[in-house]
Design a protein that fits this description.
The complex is a heterodimer. Chain A is mainly α. Chain A contains seven helices and no strands. Chain B has a single domain, classed as Orthogonal Bundle (Helix Hairpins), CATH 1.10.287.3510. Chain B contains three helices and no strands. The chains are: A mainly alpha, B mainly alpha.
Chain lengths: 173, 100
């Protein structure tokens, strides 16, 4: 029962943050509501018994990635977005269509997949088990991601550096 | 205790909000944040299925998704900075030329 109450509270916070991300016009407000979404998702992971994922969610997503977003918004001095004319047919057909579709999918999920609760007592969420899996069974994908991160670092340095600064340093060095 | 379907519905709502933001937003940074929202919705269903089947590999997949999302955020924001430097705008409607 406590699980259900906590799930509902943080699920509502999560959806409210996601909707707030859509309705805000200034990007900094959207970024802060995305932080709210990620924080409440970490609580949902804790409710599912995934402590490691919850910790990584807070550290990597709500910490590192969102700081990067806020940093770029501040750096570029982004203002409120300008509205462009949208098509009226998209509004008339799209909003009811999306509502009907999502209600249908939710109904099918709730009725077909059953409402018997997840049992969390035998939950293997210990970081030691995850480390065993990550560094033993998934060792090759783990090493490949290190190459991916290296490429991403080099790519972002190349993309974000000013061309004239690169030319200048080439002449000097 | 919460049924699996509730988690799937929540993850679907988050994913739908991400898709809607991707389509209706005009600021390139907010579009990028909508992509992160979609990734978060997918992560939630990964963890929920991992709990359902008592399989830890779901949580390892979430770890990999987070790594790819972090790399994507770094490269994407660098691209946004490069676009802003050449076009002086963040509106995606005004970024419609491959070459200036």
């Amino acid at each position: 029962m406590l699980h259900l109450i906590l799930f509902s509270i943080f699920g509502l916070i999560c959806v409210a943050g996601a909707v707030n991300l859509l309705v805000q016009t200034h990007p900094i407000n959207s970024a802060l509501s995305l932080v709210v979404v990620m924080g409440s998702l970490a609580v949902e992971y804790l409710l599912l018994g995934a402590e490691f994922v919850a910790a990584v969610q807070v550290i990597v997503y709500a910490g590192a990635v969102m700081v990067l977003f806020v940093f770029v918004i501040m750096l570029l001095n982004a203002g409120a977005e300008e509205h462009t004319k949208g098509s009226i047919i998209a509004l008339v057909l799209g909003v009811p269509g999306m509502l009907i579709g999502s209600v249908l999918i939710a109904w099918v999920l709730v009725t077909k997949s059953g409402t018997h609760p997840l049992s969390l007592n035998a939950m293997p969420g210990h970081p030691r088990d995850i480390a065993q899996l990550l560094f033993h069974d998934f060792l090759l994908p783990f090493e490949v991601t290190s190459i991916l991160v290296l490429i991403a670092i080099m790519g972002s340095v190349v993309l974000a550096s000013r061309p004239e600064a690169v030319e200048h340093s080439k002449k000097e060095g | 205790m919460v049924p699996l379907s509730y988690y799937l519905v929540l993850s679907g709502i988050l994913f739908a909000c991400g898709v809607a933001g991707f389509l209706i937003k005009r600021n390139i940074i907010t579009i990028f944040m909508s992509i992160e929202l979609m990734l978060n919705g997918v992560n939630l269903s990964f963890v929920a299925f991992a709990a359902q089947w008592h399989a830890l590999s779901g949580q390892v997949f979430v770890f990999f998704v987070m790594v790819v999302a972090a790399a994507e955020a770094a490269v994407g924001l660098a691209i946004i900075i490069a676009v802003y430097r050449t076009r002086a705008t963040l509106n995606v409607d005004k970024v419609d030329l491959l070459k200036l």
